[in-house]
Structures are given as C-alpha cells and as structure tokens.
Amino acid sequence: MLYDLSLHMGYIYDTPASGARHIMRLMPLSLPDRQRLIAGSIKVSPTPDEQSHFVDFFEHPATSFMVRAPHEKLDIRMQARVQVESHSIAADFSPELSRLADEVAGVWSLKAGSPHHFLGNSPRLIETPAISEYARSALGPSLTVLQIATALCALIHTEFTYDSDATTVDTTPLEAFRLKRGVCQDFAHVMILALRSLGIPAGYVSGFLRTIPPPGKERLEGADAMHAWVRVWCGKTLGWVELDPTNNIPAGTDHIVVGYGRDYADVAPVIGVLKSYGGQRAVQAVDVIPLP
What is the pTM of this model? Predict the structure, then answer.
C-alpha cells in the first residue's frame, strides 16, 4: 500500500511562551521488508532559532529545536509518502512460555531490538500486581508465547471500552485498568505490562492507522489519528510480532510505524519545556490517504 500522510499538531498558550525547546519524533521509519519512507518534511512555526537532527538509542530519527521569542502558539506540520508492504504471520513458531526464558538468555545483543530492553520496568510502566494477576487469566496449558499474546490482545479488546474522554496522556496503566476504559495508549500500556509480568518481552509502537468510514459515509478530512499498538518478542525463530489490542488484529498494511520503544515516553511525538504560565490547548489532525 502507498500512502500520503499529513499531520497537524498545534499548541495554543493562555499566555505567550518563550525559551521553548522541543524534540519531535513524527516521521515514519524505513523498515526492511515492512515499510519505506519515500519522502517527508516537517515544518515548524514560528521558525526555530536552533534546530538539529539526531538518531536516538531506539533508532528513531528525531528533531530538536528551540524558539526563544515569546509566541502565542506553536504549529507543527508533517507530510510524508510511505510504502507499506503486506506482511502476515505464516505459522506459529514461538516457543511455549516455559522455554522462552532460555531463548531470551541466548540473545547476546544489546542493540535497540534486543528483547532484554523490554522485560523490566520502564519510565511509564512499573510492575503492577493487579495487571499481573489479570495476565495469568490468559494462561492455559502448553500455550505458546504467540497464543498467550493473542489471547491477551483479545481479552483487552473485549473487556475495555474505547473512550477518549476517560483518560489523558498522563493516565497510569493501573488507573486505566481499573476504569476498563481509555484509548489506544492505555490499551497498549496495559497489554505490555501484562506480557512483561509473564516474562514475555513487549514494547510500544507509535504510528498511524488508516481508518475506513462506515458504508455509505464519506471519509472525513483529518479524521485519522496517531495510533499505538504492541510488539511482542515471540522467540528467536519468530522474532517480533505486532498486535493491536484496540482493534484486536495483527498490525497490517493499515498500520504505519513511526517509532518503537519501551513505552510512550520513548516515542512521544513531541516533548519539551518552555517558559509560560496558565494553561494550553492542543489540537491535532491526521490524514492517511491511500494512493493507487
């Protein structure tokens, strides 16, 4: 599938902000046999006084910029063209859970994709007994790692309600778990914690999801959204598999990857600091347009 992407993120401040320094991770990745970034650009207004580009530990291209002068709003616009390849899980070659620890121990690499980085606590994900107990409900006799991950994905999809008003970006996984409500970030965080509690390496995927309007309805401009789902390490043979608990499906050609991390903190689209007081309002619009 070939897509044209456009994203608009805006921040409107109650009082002018100054000395703003931000880091953006918005551009889709190029991944072998998965997706290819053909072209892309990011524009920031006001024009930054300083700007630099770097690749972080998890191999995300990132942009750091600073705006010194007072400004009432910050406007970020990204455009990209991406080719996404068809991929599917042909067969379950993952080990049974009892053998997974030995396979993890046999991985000597500590590069970005090593399963060792995705087993313990991370900035936003701390071991949570209630979620650990929930994870054990997905266990069965002689299940493989992929079967457990797929069962947890389905369980969260069934028992949690998508509700964009129930949580915020700072809601903890335990709060979302108790509510059984939230958005894709909450579903992904709960599933990652559940998998890690079983000794299964799991990480966070940030990206875009193409949405398809109901039959007879026109697609609304800006109605697509940034999305989050889960990657699960299913042993040395199968490797990483991506599952979307919000929709209870494997990630497919409608899923476009921006970044991989341990949790949201590693892949937040925009983070930063600034001098101001009062509140701020954020706006976001995304278009994911398939091309012939």
Answer: 0.94
